[in-house]
Description:
- The chain is an alpha/beta fold.
- It has a single domain, classed as TIM Barrel (Alpha-Beta Barrel).
- About 45% of the residues lie in helices and about 15% in strands.
- The chain has helices spanning about 20-30, 50-65, 80-95, 110-125, 135-140, 145-155, 165-175, 190-195, 210-220, 225-240, 250-260, 275-290, and strands spanning about 5-10, 15, 15-20, 35-40, 70-75, 100, 130-135, 155-160, 180-185, 200-205.
- The strands form 2 sheets. The protein has an 8-stranded parallel barrel, surrounded by 6 helices. It has a two-stranded antiparallel ribbon with strand order 2-3.
- The longest helix has 17 residues, at about 225-240.
- The radius of gyration is 18 Å and the shape is globular.
Amino acid sequence: MFEGVHTALVTPFKNGKIDYDSLEKIIEMQISSGIDGLVPMGTTGESPTISFEEHKDFIKRVVSYVKKRVKVIAGAGANSTKEAICLSIEAEEYGVDAILSVNPYYNKPTQRGLIAHFESIAKSIKIPVVLYNIPGRTGVNFLPESIRELLDRVDNVVAMKEATGDIAQMMNLMELCSDSLTLLSGDDNLLLPVLGIGGKGVISVLSNLLPADVKKVVTLYNQGSYEECRKHFYRLLPLCRAIFLETNPIPIKAAMEMAGYCSSEMRLPLVPLSDENHRKLKASLQHYGVSLK
C-alpha cells in the first residue's frame, strides 16, 4: 500500500512565514517526476518549530494541492499521546491517506509505554498508521518484539519508517512482522540494503531535490535489474552523504535554494549551512550534474 518513494517534504519559509507558493511548485515537480507519495510535517519539514495552527494549515494545503494524485502521509507525532491523537484525528479529517507517527521524544517511554502510545493513536483513527523509529532523534528505540505485540493489538499499523541505521534490527523486524508490516528505509544511504532485506521503499530526504533519481533505484530493483540498480545507487550515494553534512534539513534546504526551488530559510534553533559545508554540498551537486541557479 505504501511502497516506493515518499518524499519527506521540506517546509519552505519566506520572511518567517510558510511560503505556500514555493510549496505548491515543489509538489507539482514531485508529482510530475513520478513520486509515490509525500510526507509533510516530518523531521525534514521542521515540525518542532511549527505552530499547531501552521501544522494543520500545512497538511490541509498539501492535500488540496495533491488532489489525490499521490499518497499523502501526514506527520502527526508528538511526545504527548493526547496531542498526537489530536493531530492524527485532524489529519484524517483533512483527507490524508495515512499518518506518520514518530516515537515520543525526550520523555523516553518504556517498550510498554511505546506500545500503549501507538495503540491509542491507531485506535483513535480509521486510516493507516506508519510508525517512525528514529532513536537518534527521540532517545528511544521501538524494538521488533514490541512492534509485533502492537500489530497483534491493532490492524491499521501498516508500515515502519526505519531510521535506526541497524540492518540487523531491521532483519529481525522483517522476520517477526513482514506478514503485516511494510518496511521503508528512513535513511537515503541505506535504501539499497533495505531493499535487499525485503524493504519496499524509502521516505526520502534527497527526493526533495531528485525525486526521479531516487525512484529509479526502487524501480530498477523491482524490475530485477540489480546491477543497474547498484550502479545508480552508488552514483547517488555521495549526495546522500552530502545532504547530511549537518543536521537535517539544513543541507537539503540549502540544496533546494541552490537549485532554485525555495529559500534555505529556517527557524531557530536551526541555522544556515556553514560556508565550508556549503562549498562541499555545492561541489557534490555539481559533480552529480544537478542544475544550479
